[in-house]
Amino acid sequence: MASLSPTAPDAALAELRNIAPKTVVWLNESQLYLGPDPLGERVAAGLRELLHDPSRAPVLVLGTLWPEHWDTLTTSARHAGARELLGGHKIDVPNAFSLADLAALDAAYGADPRLRQAARRADDAQITQYLAGVPFLMDRYNAARGATLALIHAAMDARRMGAGLRIPLDWLADAALGYLIDTEYHALDDDWLSQALAYVTKPCNGIPGILTPVNTSGPRNQRRSRQPAASGIPAERRAPGSQGPHYLLADYLDQLGRHHRAHTIPPIDFWTAAAHHAHPSDMDALGRAAWARGLYRDATQLHKHATTHGNPYSAVTLVSHLHSLHPTDHHPAQWAAAHVALDNPYAVARLLKGLRVAGADEQVSTLLARNPATHVTLNQPEDVAGLLKELREAGADEQVSTLLARNPATHVTLDSPYGVAGLLKELREAGADEQVSTLLARNPATHVTLDNPYTVIQLLKGLREAGADEQVTALAKRLPAAGHFTLLPLIGGNREELRLGREPDGSAAASWTWNDMD
Hints:
By secondary structure, the protein is mostly helical.
């Protein structure tokens, strides 16, 4: 079984390439791998590539996540790769044991005594919750007061506003003060934090406390790689949030906070502390949470810091938001163009477009002067296609030539029909006929997934426009078995022949009518 750190999608990317056949990949809290921008989409792409690689089969990928995270990953446009990975593979886990489950547990010989105790004592048959120490946690939570309760609420709010599992203590300590009423604040002594931590970290009968300290010194017994970090962000730009003690909030209280505090906006000190102490990988989500609640100043500060540490999506957001508030001020655009990481072609393309929409021509030049075409990854065909399009529209012919010289047609993955179609189109628009031939020579029609009929239609159209008749035929042969027989008439030439359907061997169905039915 492969175990990947849930706080480092870049580490997951590094490990995915080493996964061998007969491996189980367990992604606990899957949103921590698939959700972060921009690495989440690259993790999703890596997992799809792993699952479609016959040389590494069989491989089983299992993940767990709460329903709200499933909804985010499968409905948001920001997570197209995750949606393609997860779609059609959902297994709902019930909140409680059924009567049949309880009966089977009671009848089982030699059942774990802890399970028997949980079956007797758990409310509403919620045995899993009982085993997780819910009664103990709730007793401790309900008894907490003053600074101790403030520390807990700060942790709850950090998680529900977008922080990862490991929350820096510096953030919690600075934020907690903002939750106190005046009498509580003025009554604090110098040792308040130690007292609060002693309470929230106290375990009971082997059950962890409300907060659990975690070791942040890094993984053990792993080979060091000389390859650069998958994020493309230098270590010195990833310092905030990585220093000092970190704590995990008990999972049940995490979910409790998301429901019971859903209508509560964290105080100013929470956001100020987040901007100073949160991990850079969390700042984009925190900034979006602040913006959605009308906290534009706090959102901008978080997105500025996230941009400083290379997050390309924060850079795009920073330009868009500040242009709407201060249309004539190009300082945010300059900051984004100068600091954004250049490894993600999709995000660089979006930033280019955003800068052009904002009329920030000087900042477009600043971004292009950093030569993004030499830095972007070439994995996803749709992302490379998007960057080619934006570079052409920005008149950056030299950058287009540089990107094409890297021969993206030989590097992109071939699982996305929409991506292959888009890249074919942009290569043809750029006059890169040799690249078109290279891409077609890799036989994408036999590799693309056929889950989405709309994207298959886009690829069929792209192949026909490229004159790739052999590829059209190869793709057409795969359609019936994938449940897309109705797309065959779109190819033309056999519409009348297949009017009455086909046989399992592929031949056209003989003439039949209603009278032939039993």
